[in-house]
Amino acid sequence: ELKVEAVKRPDLQLVQGVPLPSPSCETWDQLCSFQARPDDLLIATYPKAGTTWMQEIIDMIHNNANLEKCRRAPTYVRVPFIELVPPKPIPSGLTQVQEMPSPRTIKTHFPFQLVPKSFWEQKCKAVYVARNAKDVLVSYYYFIKMNHGLPTSGTWEEHFDAFLTGNVAWGSWFDHVKGWWEAKDKHQILYIFFEDLKEDLKREIKKVAEFLEKDLKEEVINKIALHTSFDMMKDNPMANYTTLPSFIFDQSVSPFMRKGSVGDWKNHFTVAQNETFDEVYALKMAGGPLKFRTEL
Ligand code: A3P
Predict the structure, then answer these.
(1) Residue 109 known to be catalytic
(2) In the chain, where does DSSP find H-type helix?
(3) d(CA 33, ligand 1 centre) in Å
(4) How many helices (H) and strands (E) does the chain have?
(5) Is the CB of residue 16 less than 8 Å from the CB of residue 113?
(6) Best residue among 48, 146, 173 to mutate for probing ligand 1, ranked by most atoms within 8 Å of CB
(7) Other C-beta atoms within 10 Å of 283: how many?
(8) Which of 109, 159, 176, 227 is catalytic?
């Protein structure tokens, strides 16, 4: 069993104006000079947008829906999180990526401008998953409570304000979704919405498979959709993060696979908060082409 240094929540530290958990900043110089390979695939998201879901979908696509292969290791081993710096002696995401044989699938929460330039020089593909801000705000609230690797964002009211001002790890949701949207036509980036995955999972799996140039039979698509349903992933120890010790992810505070729905914000936002949110949202997203659904 791994002996880990006592987990003390980190602070936020700015990198090019973007708040990150301070340990991730320690490897910033190495991240900048990271050498990508042309067959690297990035899965990029703002936190809580459906990262783990896409990691499972893509691993299933790569393995032709072979369940045994996809149960070979937990999500965070199969698809390492490049900017993660966990407590010692767990190796950093960067080390894990560097030690991984190709073809590599790599997770990042970086806003577009922080992604190591080498990925674009090597013309790597990236799948970006975006989720509506109201549900992300709620999901992030519970996640920060249970994840001791993140700085606290306070009470529900404090978290609400911190999220809207972008004073949370990985910064402003608004800048994140817009930055990747603007980049998507300049690089090989597939932009997917969480709400679309919820609406029609098979349709979206087909989109991802096509983007990855994998020609999958209908029965394989069906199997992937079944295996990546919320209920299946909630019960899958290789996807639900229960392999992490409770002093890192305390799932008695909130399970990682919490609700997996669209519109849970309605159970949390007060009428006044919803008005404040809509005002800020209208200002930040004004006139833009990017449209989100907050209910299905
Ligand atoms: P909730 O907290 O709203 O339940 P990430 O992987 O980016 O951290 O995102 C986690 C969110 O995605 C959680 O949202 C989690 O429940 C949800 N999620 C994970 N797998 C899912 C699936 N197969 N179907 C629907 N939602 C899923």
Answers:
(1) yes
(2) 22-26, 28-32, 51-62, 67-70, 75-78, 93-98, 118-121, 133-146, 156-165, 173-183, 194-199, 201-211, 218-227, 230-234, 271-285
(3) 31
(4) 15, 6
(5) yes
(6) 48
(7) 9
(8) 109
Q: Is 230 in the pocket of ligand 1 (CB under 6 A)?
A: yes
Q: What is the pLDDT of residues 110-124, one digit of tens each?
A: 999 999 999 999 999
State both tokens at 169.
């790890």
Q: Distance between the two ends of the chain, CA-based, in angstroms?
A: 44
For residue 258, which amino acid is it? R
CA atoms 250, 193, 174, 106: torsion sign:
positive
User: What is the ipTM, given to two decimal places?
Assistant: 1.00
**Contacts of 65 by beta carbon, 8 Å cutoff, 6+ apart:** 216, 220, 223, 224, 227
Give per-residue pLDDT as tens, 167-211. 999 999 999 999 999 999 999 999 999 999 999 999 999 999 999
**What CA–CA distances, in Å, run from 140 to 62, 145, 150?**
29, 9, 11
Calculate how far, in angstroms, residue 50's C-alpha sits from the geometric centre of ligand 1.
5
11 within 8 A of 95, measured Cβ to Cβ: no
Which has the closest alpha carbon to 257: 105, 158, 168, 146? Answer: 146
Query: What is the whole-number distance in angstroms between the Cα of residue 106 and the centre of ligand 1?
Result: 18
Q: Whole-model pTM?
A: 0.97
Q: Whose CA is nearest to atom 18 of ligand 1?
A: 260
Map tokens 């960067």 to a residue.
94
Taking the centre of ligand 1 as the mean of its atom positions, its distance from the CA of residue 23, in whole angstroms, is 25
State the amino acid at position 264 in one-letter form: D
Ligand 1 atom 9: the closest Cα is on which residue? Answer: 48
Amino acid identity of residue 127, one-letter, is: V
